[in-house]
Design goal:
Layout (H helix, E strand, L loop, with lengths): L16 E4 L15 H5 L18 E2 L13 E7 L11 E3 L2 E6 L3 E6 L5 E6 L17 E3 L2 E5 L4 E6 L5 E6 L14 E3 L2 E5 L10 E6 L5 E6 L29 E3 L4 E5 L20 E6 L5 E6 L15 E7 L2 E9 L4 E8 L2 E9 L6 E4 L6 E3 L10 E4 L13 E3 L4 E7 L2 E6 L20 E4 L8 E7 L4 E8 L7 E4 L3 E4 L6 E6 L5 E6 L9 E5 L2 E8 L3 H14 L10 E6 L3
Length: 575
């Protein structure tokens, strides 16, 4: 993998750290505090966190832009970030103050109405940093501060009005393979982060810091050590480098004070090198928000050998059933299964799991526990090439789903008709070096014959019936995070044709599309300022979407090239 140097010389004259840019109007002078109460019940006109609300729905209650008028949607303003690589962060909006992040840890504060730049923070990253995923998935807001998790494993608090650094706290040592790409989670006066680095033999963890001071409050390892429940799922001292990164923002039940986080792969990749279930890899963890104690967990698949990270946090959906309300977690897994669990104060109970793409690894799923059994012919091994479906990128990678309470549908950005193959090899751990046990050149993606017709899909699943309601197909693979709105719409990009689209949430009919400068792998949001509704998303192709396209070009004989370069697009209806 290429080594990504820390500083970008794209901004001559830009001071390292933060810069309050000239021309910021008096709209920036007053910044409304983001309280715990506002985060628990955010106003529909704002987008205060990664998925808009703690439940992770990715749903906007605004309906001014709807199925009847979305055909008139136009770009109102754009802002070029001047950066390459994957722009995956959502715009975060608080009463007209808009914040985005870019690859290499820049934070931009903009006027949400006009696009004028208020300030820009640029992280000075170390030159010897190796980051497999040069991206960032956004900021958190709390009080009068903006929080950034950095590629060199620091948590930084910025003054929301000026961009000046208030405090910064080291989370881990990047020289040991730790880095962060996620948007922090702000809750109950705390800022929570999880670490990336599963390919470097890290021991993953989730940590909480005091929002005001940056003081560490608690730290929970996602790989249990000696004397902790689950340590016997690791042979010898393999737990020390077990992986289980948590590199996507968790969801939160504010009533029960429990936060839910997904975890990733074990290290090294091939399970034969570390016999056992390997808790808590490829799992969902339920953590007490105040103490970090693990209240419950569910492991989607044990002894992972396919690099099927399950880092996407499950969404929280409360559904009427038999005169009562059943509290559920719903997760569209990288393993290609749609999982439904029941959440209780100290337990997670299995309800259902069904494939949403072709999957040939699981031979059965225990109806009581949800534990899968495997077809051994589909389990990658040391010194042996093994094929399996779906590919290493899964039925869905990190891009988040969306849920609409209007339709009761879950919207999944899926990839079908792709299988894969891995060949494992022994590997010796060295701090800060790759610890995969698989050569990069031996990671294969195998398109099925049907891939010539389509790969990407946007699926709608009726959670009440457990059945698929509709599917829209794309020739391209799909890396598009999804937004649902009260206007009866679903917005998503993610394809290599650079289009950003709006669909009818009930039928899947395409209602509008707009070509952009690059591929849209950013998280779309909606907000309102002075009575006007906006739809906003970052366009900027890179990281896994680009890498996967290169592999597909080789297999399919295509020559698709998607231009890079980040641009924030903000749309609205004409005056």
């Amino acid at each position: 993998m290429p080594r990504h140097l820390s500083t970008h010389l794209l901004y001559i004259g830009l001071l390292l750290g933060s810069v309050a840019c000239a021309g910021a109007d008096e709209h920036t002078a007053t910044y409304p505090a983001v309280t715990d109460a506002r985060l628990a019940a955010p106003e529909a006109r704002n987008w205060l966190m990664y998925r808009g609300t703690y439940d992770g729905w990715g749903y906007s209650g605004l309906s001014g832009i709807n199925t009847g008028n979305v055909k008139n949607l136009k770009p109102l303003w754009t802002y070029s970030t001047g950066m390459t690589e994957a722009h995956q962060a959502p715009p975060i909006v608080n009463e007209g103050h808009l914040f985005i992040t870019t690859p290499h840890n820049h934070v931009l504060a903009l006027d949400a109405r006009t696009g004028s730049l208020n300030w820009r923070y640029q992280r000075e990253l170390p030159e010897d940093l190796m980051q497999l995923h040069p991206t960032n998935r956004g900021v958190a807001l709390h009080g009068d501060k903006v929080y950034l998790a950095t590629a060199d494993a620091f948590l930084v608090a910025l003054d929301a009005a000026t961009g000046e650094v208030v405090w910064e706290q080291q989370v881990e040592d990047y020289l040991n393979g730790y880095y962060m790409t996620l948007a922090p989670l702000a809750a109950e006066g705390l800022i929570l982060v999880g670490v990336s680095g599963g390919e470097f033999g890290i021991r993953g963890f989730i940590q909480a810091f005091d929002a005001a001071t940056g003081k560490p409050v608690w730290k929970t390892y996602t790989v249990p050590g000696p004397g902790e429940p689950g340590n016997d799922a690791w042979p010898g001292d393999s737990w020390k480098r077990g992986g289980a990164p948590a590199w996507v923002t968790g969801s939160y039940d504010a009533k029960e004070k429990i936060t839910y986080w997904g975890t990733g792969n074990a290290g090294p990749w091939i399970g034969e090198a570390r016999p056992g279930d390997n808790l808590y890899t490829t799992s969902v963890l339920a953590l007490d928000i105040h103490t970090g104690k693990i209240r419950a967990h569910h492991q989607y698949h044990w002894n992972d050998s396919w690099d099927w990270d399950e880092v996407a946090a499950p969404i929280l959906v409360d559904r009427p059933q038999g005169g009562q309300v059943r509290k559920t977690l719903v997760h569209a897994g990288r393993d290609g299964y749609l999982w439904t669990l029941e959440r209780k104060p100290d337990a997670l109970a299995f309800i259902d799991a069904r494939p949403y793409v072709e999957q040939n690894v699981y031979s059965a799923i225990d109806p009581t526990t949800g534990r899968p059994s495997y077809d051994e012919a589909r389990v990658p091994k040391l010194g042996e090439r093994v094929e399996y479906c779906p590919s290493v990128w899964g039925g869905k990678d990190w891009p988040p789903v969306a849920y609409s309470p209007q339709t009761g549908y879950l919207y999944i950005p899926a990839n079908e008709n792709l299988c894969g193959a891995l060949t494992g090899e022994p590997v010796e751990y060295r701090a800060g070096e790759m610890y995969m046990g698989v050569k990069v050149e031996d990671i294969e993606v195998i398109p099925t014959p049907e891939a010539k017709d389509h790969i990407g899909e946007l699926q709608a699943w009726d959670l009440a019936s457990g059945k698929r309601a509709w599917t829209t197909e794309f020739a391209s693979h799909n890396w598009g995070p999804v937004l649902a709105t009260a206007g009866g719409l679903v917005f998503s990009g993610g394809t290599n044709d650079r289009q950003f689209r709006a669909f009818d949430a009930r039928t899947g009919k395409l209602l509008w599309q707009q070509g952009t400068n690059s591929g849209v792998v950013g998280v779309p949001v909606s907000f309102e300022v002075e009575g006007r509704q906006y739809i906003a998303v970052q366009s900027g192709w890179g990281v896994d979407a680009e890498r996967k396209q290169q592999v597909l070009n080789q297999h399919l004989g295509t020559r698709v090239q998607v231009p890079q370069g980040g641009v924030l697009w903000v749309f609205g209806l004409p005056d």
